[in-house]
Design brief:
It holds the Pfam family Biotin_lipoyl. With 139 residues, the chain is an all-beta fold. Helix content is 0%, strand content 49%. It folds into two domains: 36 residues, no CATH class; 68 residues, Beta Barrel (OB fold (Dihydrolipoamide Acetyltransferase, E2P)).
């Protein structure tokens, strides 16, 4: 299990702990095996639990500037393009499925935020994309 090196009165000792069950510890000191019985229970430490406090501000959905001429569809998370449902020149409506992005073994549907015409498709099926990578442009 664990190995320790000690120096007592200028003498070196190598202690290897072989097993630990309840209050009995089997160890080896410089090659000589020993069985040690502890008088008190050894407390076992638990893995710490991380606690995250709630955000003070509610999440604000991403809004598209309705006055802008072009809309950029970017990857919300890194992943792989599983399917591409549009091509350049397609006219789409709001909430139409543009593509499917696989991330962390989950399929994420990427939909149009507003109506328009597809002016550029910057990805292809099977391509890996990073977060915030430009995938599709709409006009």
């Amino acid at each position: 299990m664990k190995s320790y090196k000690f120096k007592v009165n200028e003498n070196g000792y190598t202690v290897n702990i072989k097993s630990h069950e309840d209050n009995i510890i089997n160890l080896e000191v410089n090659g000589t095996p020993y069985e040690v019985v502890m008088k008190a229970n050894v407390k076992t430490t638990k893995t710490p639990t991380l606690v995250r406090s709630a955000s003070k501000q509610p999440a604000v959905p991403l809004k598209v500037n309705p006055k802008s001429a072009k809309t950029r569809i970017v990857a919300p998370i890194p992943g792989v393009i599983l399917s591409l449902n549009v091509k350049v020149g397609d006219v789409i409506k709001e909430n139409d499925l543009l593509l499917v992005l696989e991330a962390m073994k989950m399929e994420n549907n990427i939909v149009a935020e507003k109506s328009g015409t597809v002016t550029a498709v910057k990805v292809e099926v099977g391509q890996q994309v990073l977060q915030d990578a430009l995938m599709i442009e709409l006009e």
